[in-house]
Amino acid sequence: MRVIIVGCGRVGSELANALSAERHEVGVIDRNPLSFGRLSRDFNGRMLTGVGFDREILQTADIEGADALAATTDSDNVNIVVALTAKETFKVPHVVARIYDPQAAEIYRREGIPTVTPTVWAANTMKMMIVHPPLASLSTCGSGEVQFLTVEVPRPLAGRTIQDLTLPGEALVGAVVRRGQAMIASTNTRLEAGDVLHITAAVSAIPKLEKLLAH
Asked: Would you say the C-alpha torsion 149, 122, 146, 95 has a positive or negative sign?
């Protein structure tokens, strides 16, 4: 893939390094050339100094042929302008923006721009750790109504099946990691102590899920 990343802060540089390591074609734009120092020595993409929503700098980054763009600066306004320019002017197929304001993020999601909201993710993760300590939240969907969770199977549940932890329409076990190997779960998969379950659950169903795990 050809990917353009606008903003070479902590998030942008990590994303650029990860994509470059997988041998994607990456271009990074930042107004501060010193920020490129965050890129790894193995980074083999392009580094362009300039304002990310400037059409000339985007064209220099070959945005017309880009498969994706990520706006990861520390400014919501800049990220939205960059995302809209990429999506509406240059018709980039996949555009994502980091937005700190949860209300703004929801508005742009409805407009078809996927957003990552660190504030919401952090708050939901901390709440999960406080209120539901056995369950670890990996991420959320929408405005947080659905959670992607992991939990280690306690010894009392060994021998039970995935069916015993399924709440139709509310919670579903999608994968089991056993001794480091992942497998897709079926309803008759028998659990072993120490298995790590990857569960998709409605937030409203989490108390029910905890009761099932406690049995």
From this structure: negative
